[in-house]
Amino acid sequence: MLAADFLHLEKDVETVNSYADIFHLDVMDGVFVPNISFGFPVIKNIASIAKKPLDAHLMIIDPDRYISKLHDMGVEYVSVHYEACNHLHRTIQNIQSMGMKGGVAINPHTPASSLEYILDYADFVLVMSVNPGFGGQSFIENSLRKIAEIKEMAIRKGLNTLIEVDGGVNLKNAVDLKAAGTDSIVVGSTITSSPNPLQTIADLKA
User: Is residue 26 annotated as a catalytic residue, yes or no?
Assistant: First the structure.
């Protein structure tokens, strides 16, 4: 939703309701990342008409402060950053204790090996394939290798951990992302800048 037209937000929400699978909500605090996006009033309004699950990506410091509020708004998936949490295991458990799926997000510079001791506890991993903070960036190619490493780690551990990828996803790299082990893609500007957004969504799914 970061790439949505906030002057006509309801229209873009209905597009997701009709053609996409999930609402990805990028929450930024201007501290952990160099940008501020939107907060709870916007999430509440989206949730009021959303017919698909809400997936909150918290690009903020001290995310534990807001987990219960996200639950109360009906959010089903919450990802927090490996780089932002002092007690990551506790934070993931806090999310899961409220019945939500807890995910770990990692920045482009963070190696796959950093997940070795948390992968057993997370429901999903969100691989940032651009530096977080702004939409419309170019895909970082080394992300494909990282995704494959995380998938191999999950298989080795006998886990069904899902891998979500966010940043620079388009029709050219979607096939490679799938081949590397990606289960879910977050797509913003590729859709909103398309002359035919609904066809682009269909093509990405295909």
Answer: yes
